[in-house]
């Protein structure tokens, strides 16, 4: 929080008083855009279930400021995330890393899709062999026609 | 006295439901008309008793009876009357009582509006619903009694979670629960048909309107919840793949599959087993949703009341429901006839693929929701599965569905002529390509993702128009046909909203002194300052912003930052200027100096193109569902078929 206030104070010093256009919280729109992109994939650790981008909690603000700093130092997106994982663990990532314990998570849906479509296809083939249409006898046809007429009137 | 009356009524209702759950089922099995006849009066009595119980709890809230623990925990005298009444379902105990009330309400509706059905069938449906009611009432009475008294009542209650003090939250839970609980009706019809050994087109026809109405409620409930999150949580998001959101979305996906599968069962007599399984799955998923929300096993923004003991009870109930249903299914399913023959390319196949995709999508959501629990249970540590994951797996599964939406309704039953369909739909393909290329350029930058989405929208909408023209030539279509078209159109509208807002939304985080301006999406906000104001049970910093476009003043916007008397968490009330093609959204983040009224504030502004189309699309889907359920054919008494069904039921019993 302190860091944030300092940043704000520094920011306000650079600006002419009562400028018409409001100052963005970060000087650099490119940094800000990257900050949003990164922090949308990170979990706010003190909230129930909110992203770092959306959260209004103090810790989230501090962390956003820290991420901003890392970006400005020239760290890549994945370096920023790695840093946060090293500090807070995998829990901070909303996009779980691909590793043995998450193979099933990432492959699961597509495996399901494959199994589903495959089973469906086999079921259809099997079914078309088993089900045979028994055509109506003349007697039945007459009854059906009579019923249809009855329903229409 | 009144709370005891409510408690007593609930206990009575429990025993009445027990009667409703046992006698009619046994009566239908043994062919005893007198026992079968118990079903309707028992259902009505149970409905009245739970109604009395619910009214008693509402009364306790109305008169601020803080000797009732639940009231003391969720309301106080400062709370406006409207929220005092909606606080009845603001916590765990009350929302479960609402659950039960709606369940008996659905049962009463089935009893009242199914006069054209054979008595044995109605008795079985009401019996199954009675058993489900017994399970849930036991849950309320044993683990979550809302009428528990406090030995020394406090002078003042603890109040309702400020997040819930919002008009949207008055309607959201009842609508959502109506949908959740409605799954029980679809389930009861399926169980009744299995019990009678009579899975046929008649069963599908009877259960269809009920399933569709439940689906309509679920759709509206989810949409309202999403809208609430959008304007109340202050970060401009409308869906976060939160476990609790997923808990309501999974039954929705399966119920959507069920509606389509019921169509085949009704029209063609096929997929009966599959339809029954879907009905079981839909209801099990709504129970699972309740378990996830109530047990606190998952951390979520919405889990307002959590308790592991209660979770265990629901888990057992879930196991009993699923286990018993599947056993019954295994015993009865092999005897079911497979229905009529159809070719590989036919409407039946298209609808089956629809079902596979929806169920797989639901499976993916389930996997993502439960995976952190599984990993944790196996000692893999804590992980989070959030929006990036769900978007990555859910969207690819849904895309083929959007292609099929146009094909299914054009395809014929039994055997479709693919070349003829393509010949009919080629203008839609052209429209798709054109929409994909042109529309994103009109909106701003061209992105592959939004181009694909808009191409699919072009494909769906053009196909809808072509189908409608075609169908109108053949005479006036039925209400349910229009329902289908409108619901499918709603899906297209929703896709526009999702694609546009996720691609072209703009967001700015700024520090604003009074008098400064910020622009987003061509709109300019001028900050005029903040004034403190007093609400009924909170103080608010109310900001004033001038919204203008091209130098022309449009209106004033008043976002608020509220501090409720009973809560530490400040609440953000965004101010939104909603429009047909865009929302502009401003929220106050926090003051940046001690001088709150005249000092600078951190402010967030958003430009959200087409965001309202998301909820507009959901409304269209719900409207389509209502039209479909209102179709005349569900209400006419099919003399001969009902008589035949009654005979068959008698023979089976």
Name the poorly predicted regions of chain A: 1-19
Order of helices and strands of chain B: HHHHHHHHHHHHHHHHHEEEEEEEEEEHH
Q: How many strands, which pairing sense, and closed or not: the largest β-sheet of chain B?
A: 6 strands, antiparallel
List the helices and strands of chain A in order.
HEHHHHH
* Count of helical regions of chain A: 6
Q: Over the alpha carbons, how many angstroms does the gyration radius of chain B reach?
A: 27 Å
Please state roughly what percent of the residues of chain B sit in beta strands, choosing from under 5%, 5-15%, 15-25%, 25-35%, 35-45% or over 45%: 5-15%
CATH class of the largest domain in chain A: Mainly Alpha
- Write down the Rg of chain A: 31 Å
Multimeric state of these chains?
heterodimer
Low-pLDDT segments of chain B = 300-305, 638-653
Shape label of chain A: elongated
Overall helicity of chain B: 55-70%
CATH architectural name of the largest domain in chain A: Orthogonal Bundle
Say how many strands of chain B there are: 10
Number of helices of chain B: 19
The largest sheet of chain A, given as strand count, sense and whether it forms a barrel, is: none
Can you tell me the CATH superfamily of the largest domain in chain A? Cytochrome C biogenesis protein
DSSP helix fraction of chain A: 55-70%
Count of all domains of chain A: 2
On the 0 to 100 scale, the average pLDDT of chain A is: 78
Question: How would you portray this structure in words?
Answer:
The complex is a heterodimer of chains A (153) and B (653). Chain A has two domains: 2-92, Helicase, Ruva Protein, domain 3 (Orthogonal Bundle); 98-132. Helices cover 61% and strands 1% of the residues of chain A. Chain A has helices at residues 2-14, 29-39, 58-72, 77-88, 103-130, 138-152; one strand at 23-24. The termini of chain A are far apart. Residues 1-19 of chain A have low confidence and may be disordered. Chain B starts with a helix and ends with a helix. Chain B has helices at residues 2-30, 33-36, 39-62, 69-74, 81-86, 92-112, 119-143, 168-196, 201-232, 243-268, 272-295, 308-332, 347-377, 387-407, 418-443, 448-473, 479-504, 612-629, 639-652; strands spanning 506-512, 517-520, 523-534, 538-549, 552-557, 560-564, 570-573, 575-578, 582-591, 601-609. In chain B, the strands form two sheets. In chain B, strands 2, 3, 4, 5, 6 and 7 form a six-stranded antiparallel β-sheet that branches. In chain B, strands 1-10-9-8 form a four-stranded antiparallel β-sheet. Chain B has four domains: 1-165, Four Helix Bundle (Hemerythrin (Met), subunit A); 166-415, no CATH class; 417-503; 506-610, no CATH class. Classes of the chains: A mainly alpha (153), B alpha+beta (653). The interface between A and B is large, with 55 and 70 residues. Strand 1 (23-24) of chain A pairs antiparallel with strand 1 (506-512) of chain B.
